[in-house]
């Protein structure tokens, strides 16, 4: 790992995390959200992340561990690490009450917000910010580790993560804005909730730097693949289905996979 690769990977992670601020801007300056466009975007993001996880990240982890432990044992460790990653993110998900969980869709219609008490709205926004910060931490590690291995892979994952961070920004900024009538406060809280992704990258760097080898790389990469698959299946696709029509979501999903496949072929990620 050289300093240029680390800075590039961190920059991508920072971009992905702070895209929550885009959600604030969309919420403040769009008179009406286009649910089908949002559903297609989330489906697209899920397609990118699922395709990358199974086609690229999992296979790289298996190859790396296979070099150390042989094909059979290496494959076993890869599978265990994959499901361990799913277990970690699922535990984080289940520790957050459903009311504050950003995966549970809130009605962003202004009339609905006006009917709610301001205190309840403010609480919802603040807890959503905390919940999103917890969820973004492993995403930051996933983006960072991928970018260290391949710039093309890192860029693709960063874009996918950034897309699905936008509605998370909306989930924070809208209730805070309608409870406080303060756009700046709502924007900054939403914006800062994405900082947990670059923090995850920094901690990942310091933790892994001391023992970065084929074994640690393979285990972490397999776990990252599990995290990304869980996020896609538990967060992105259900959210997309809530916002738009089923076939629009599927079209976005397939498009994301196709674009990812083509980009990998063009860049010949190794």
Give a quick set of tags describing it.
11 helices; 270 residues
Describe the fold and architecture.
- The protein has 270 residues and is mostly helical.
- The chain contains 11 helices and no strands.
- It has one domain (3-23, 35-267).
- 86% of the residues lie in helices and 0% in strands.
- Helix 3 (35-69) packs across helix 7 and helix 3 (35-69) packs across helix 11.
- The longest helix is centred in the first third of the chain and has 35 residues, at 35-69.
- The protein is globular.
- The two termini are 17 Å apart.
- Residues 112-116 have low confidence and may be disordered.
Order of helices and strands: HHHHHHHHHHH
What's the β-strand tally?
Answer: 0
The average pLDDT value, as a whole number, equals 76
Approximately how much helix is present in the residues?
over 70%
Instruction: Please work out how many helical segments DSSP would assign.
Output: 11
Distance between the termini: 17 Å
Summarize the structure.
This protein has 270 residues and is an all-alpha fold. The chain has one domain.
Question: What's the layout of helices and strands?
Answer:
Blueprint: H1 3-18, H2 20-29, H3 35-69, H4 71-95, H5 110-115, H6 118-149, H7 151-180, H8 183-193, H9 196-209, H10 214-243, H11 246-267
